[in-house]
Amino acid sequence: MADKTKDELAVLKTANDQLQAQVTALREQTNEAATMLDDLQAQLNEALAERRAIRGEAGISLNFPMLNAQGAQVGVTLRWHDLTEHEAFMAHVKTFVTARVKDSGWKVLEKIPQANAAAPALPTLVPAPQAQANGGAPVPPPGLPAAPQQEIGEAKCAMIEIAASFKGNKTQIKFHCDGLEHPLTYTREPSDMVKLMAPLGFTNAHFVVGTKYPVPCRVKWAQAEKYKNVLSVRPA
Fold first, then answer.
1. Domain interval for residue 203
2. Does pLDDT of 8 surpass 70?
């Protein structure tokens, strides 16, 4: 009987140790989540201070990594467009993180990247096409040069969208143009995109996926085998 009691106590002790280990792990996850929320709050406050100085502010997004229940890293982006309700935004962030940690078994990674502030507003543009030194046609930024036999055209664009390409998930510029059934797209290296959009006042900070700019401009294109390749842009 004594041996049986000892065995039962040993089993109970093992179960208790395992439970305590789970509680400790959960507390660590909760503490990590709380630390991350404090970090995000500080980043949000800093970004809000910057955004209030810019006209036409378009909101803010916070990007951070987590591990899902299967151990795969997941990039989380929480976006809020009304900067006057930043307290509601942080409440939403807290609810999301807490629910994922406690209910879904997600984990917070130790390294939290800086908040990705929403793209700044564009400067006021003055229509002034970029001309060649010899006074010829506008100089096209890096792109696919048009062959002599290609069809060349120019379309009026009223909306520029920063999106992600279907293949490769690369940053892509979409030009929503009058008279064209589908947007003209431009997917290149960041330096090429900056050069292409320089006449419109774009910088690296403007290429935030999901942002739309109501910028009137003219887009020059060349017809390829299946698609139209963007050659240059200029203010309308």
1. 152-235
2. yes
